[in-house]
Amino acid sequence: MLEEDLEIAVKVVVVGNGAVGKSSMIQRYCKGIFTKDYKKTIGVDFLEKQLRLNDDDVRLMLWDTAGQEEFDALTKAYYRGAQACVLAFSTTDRNSFEAVENWKSKVEEEVGPNIPIALVQNKIDLLDDAVVEQHEAEGLAKRLKLRFYRTSVKEDLNVDEVFKYLATKHIQKMRQEGEKESEPTTVQPIRQIGLFTSTGSASKSNNNNGDSGNIGGETITLQPSKSRVPSKSKNIFSRCKVF
């Protein structure tokens, strides 16, 4: 199978406070459905989505995690191995906005700071009830250096764009790391210190005398190379004093 034919699998965790629309977002993206009824996620839920991105076949594995503190110890275990993350908050829930940095820290404690992350403000169809100002959300995204999306799961607005962005960023990161690994390493030239020569006659003589001190029956002599011999003095030992 050619490398181009391989499917790229990406694990995406969707995190944030309860009732911000995480489950609805995944349902909308994977199944194209929306329900008004809120049902608290117990622990972790999971859905998959296949998509074609440029010339790549991508399988997104979307992990919907509970936002309540009582499930914190359980859900953190599912962050491990994540390759992308959605940080979600609600237009109508101030606490969910203020908790964004805490959620980001929880994810990065498990997977490190280098995965693609998108900051998502959901429920923008309820702007009349907004408790988060536009400049506040944009300021947070700028400070955290995150791509920012405003979405409405109900109206199916910008949901696809969030996950396409994360898949694209993961593929770029994966290929950049592959290029670094394939870069040839520079071999430093070896400086010649001396020349090794073997004397066959010594080998024969040693064998006749039964001397086992030379392994293999050869005497190895190390001679200094010409580049190491001082040019101004033929006798390099003339300056030495014996005490």
Describe the structure.
Residues 220-231 have a biased composition (Polar residues). Interacts with SUFU. Its cofactor is Mg(2+). InterPro entries: P-loop_NTPase, Rab, Small_GTP-bd, Small_GTPase. By secondary structure, the chain is α/β, with parallel strands linked by helices. It has 2 domains: 3-177, P-loop containing nucleotide triphosphate hydrolases (Rossmann fold, 3-Layer(aba) Sandwich), CATH 3.40.50.300; 194-225, no CATH class. It contains 7 helices and 8 strands. The strands form 2 sheets. The chain has a 6-stranded mixed beta sheet with strand order 2-3-1-4-5-6, sandwiched between helices. The protein has a two-stranded antiparallel sheet with strand order 7-8. Residues 192-216 and 231-243 have low confidence and may be disordered.
Task: Identify the overall geometry.
Answer: globular
Count the beta strands: 8
N-to-C SSE string, H for helix and E for strand: EHEEHEHHEHEHEHE
Strand content: 15-25%
Please give the share of residues in helix. 25-40%
Spatial separation of the terminal alpha carbons: 76 Å
Number of domains in the coordinates?
2
Top CATH class of the largest domain? Alpha Beta
> Strands of the biggest beta sheet: in what spatial order?
2-3-1-4-5-6
Arithmetic mean of pLDDT: 79
Whole-number radius of gyration? Answer: 33 Å
Secondary-structure arrangement, i.e. CATH architecture of the largest domain: 3-Layer(aba) Sandwich
